[in-house]
Amino acid sequence: MKKKLFLHSCCGPCSTVCIERLINDYDVTVFYYNPNIYPFEEYEKRKEEQKKVCKHFNVPVIDGDYNEEKWLEFVKGLENEKEGGSRCEKCFFYRLEETCKKAKELNFDIFGTTLTVSPHKSTPIINKVGNELSVKYDFPYLEASFKKQDGYLRSINLSKEMNLYRQNYCGCRFSVRS
Fold first, then answer.
1. Segments making up each domain of the chain, as ranges
2. Is CATH 3.40.50.800 the classification given to domain 3-176?
3. Model pLDDT, residue 71
4. What SS3 class is residue 120?
5. Cα–Cα distance for residue pair 103/17, rounded to 1 Å
6. How is the chain split among helix, strand and coil, in percent rounded to 5?
7. CB distance 74 to 104 below 8 Å
8. CA-to-CA distance for 38 and 25, rounded, in angstroms?
9. 94 pLDDT more than 90
C-alpha cells in the first residue's frame, strides 16, 4: 500500500511535474495553501488552474484558507526584503507549517511541497524548513528537488499541453514589484 502524501502546492503549473513524478509511489492529495497570493483574483485564478491539474492526474485537492492579512502580519518588517531573501524563507515556513499540521490532523503519512521545482526558489532553504517542521511536529517530510532532471522545463511543457495559465510573479504583493 502506498504512503499517503499531503503535497503543498504553490500553483497548478509547478505541481504538474511533481504530481507526475510522485503518483506512482504515493497516494497524493494536493493542498493548495497560499494566503500570500495577491490580489485575491490572482489567488482564485491560480486555484482554478490547480483544480485542472488535479483533475488531469485524478488526484484530490484541498483548498486551504485564504487570509492575506494574517500572512502580512507574519512577515511584518520584511516588506522591503529582496525577492528570495528572508521574507521568502518566512513565507515558506508559514505555508509548510500549515501543511504539516493539516497532514498530521488528517492522518496522512508524510508531507511535501512543490516549491522546489522553481529555479527561482532555494531548494536547500525549502528542505531545511520542511525538515525543521518535521522535527517540531514529529511528522515525516518528503525532501525533494523537483527541478532536477529538467523538472522545471517539464512543468513548462506540461503546462503548455494542458493550456494552463502561468503567472509572471511569485505571488505576494511584494513580488509583483520585482
1. 3-176
2. no
3. 98
4. coil
5. 21
6. 50, 10, 40
7. no
8. 34
9. yes
Q: Quote the CA–CA distance of 101 and 117 in Å, as a whole number.
A: 23
**Distance of CA 10 to CAs 23, 135, 177, Å?**
18, 23, 19
pLDDT score recorded for residue 91 = 98
Cell numbers of 91, please?
513565507
Task: List Cα–Cα distances, 173 to 15, 59, 104, in angstroms.
Answer: 22, 30, 30
**Contact partners, residue 101, CB within 8 Å, separation at least 6:** 137
Cell of 155: 512543468
Amino acid at 67: N
42 half-sphere exposure, CB direction, 13 A CA radius: 19
Backbone angles phi, psi at 65, to 5 degrees: -70, 140
- 3-class secondary structure, 161: helix
Report residue 12: phi and psi, to 5°: -60, -50
Angle of CA points 129, 157, 18, to nearest 5°:
30
What is the rounded radius of gyration, in angstroms, for the C-alpha atoms of the chain? 15
Is the pLDDT at 97 greater than 90? The verdict is: yes
pLDDT tens digits along 144-164: 999 999 999 999 999 999 999
Kindly tell me the burial class for residue 137, based on how many C-beta atoms sit within 10 Å of its own C-beta (0-12, 13-18, 19 or more): middle
Q: How far apart are CA 100 and CA 10, in angstroms?
A: 15
